[in-house]
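Quick one, T. Sequence first:
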Amino acid sequence: MTSYEPLAHDAVVLAGGAARRLGGADKPGLRIGGRALLDRVLDACADAGTTVVVADPRPTARPVRWAREEPAGAGPLAALDAGLRHTTADHVVVLSADLPFLERDTVRRLLTALRAERSDGVLITDADGRDQPLVAAYRAQALRRALAGLARTASDGSAEGGALTGLPLRRLTAALDLTRVPDAVASFDCDTWDDIAIARARIREHGHVLDEWISAVKDELGIDLDVDTRALLDLARDAAHGVARPAAPLTTFLVGYAAAQGKGGPEAVAEASRKAAALALRWAEETTGGTGEPDVAPDATPDTRPDV
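Structure tokens:
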């Protein structure tokens, strides 16, 4: 299997909207699955060389560069222009900060398509086929050229950034040659409280909750580690069945600690898991004599104490 080699890129995340349909709530800070919406998006674009968030600065799960459109609240095109000025890569991922189900694989898929196509950019379309220009990857030069052209048109020849104030995103998409990729899940955004409720319910569904919980814990602890969930669950099962139920969480904790004491990383976790699993099996074999039944000597006297 060949590893993914990302197209070198920067990222611009727009997080400064007024959230009027949420009553002016701090939308980027709303939590879905224990993580702020903004942090979920920042995790999805973690491969970026430089990540620029266009909003007032706030604590985030990873370091970013901050920018602000002038005047503040001037709209998405003005915000995009402000963020783009802090990037240097030939390709840029542009995202809104309200995408609860955006994942790294989606961003990588956009970049892979951009590498393969000759278009100016690749964007996601939603379940209704509508363009989502804030879930997209663009060629930076084409994006800058389109924004400059819109600014000149809006200001009768002036290239001042303020000329982009209030312009809708469809003006940008109309000026670019774009490839479209349908994705009803990644394009889901949180504009209303109903959307927030749907997102919170979805991540608690059986097929999602464990991955969401692991991601939330890693984010909270400030670690970035590919976790082999199946291997750790198998280890916990072996420890619980072969030793005692309380051995399950204690064993997985010790595996993590051992990996941290060593070189760290997924390989160290896997090696420690293999050793602990083998030990649990040996422990169980001693208890059952390899038969699955308790190992009792043939001439042993049964213990008839009341508490046995």
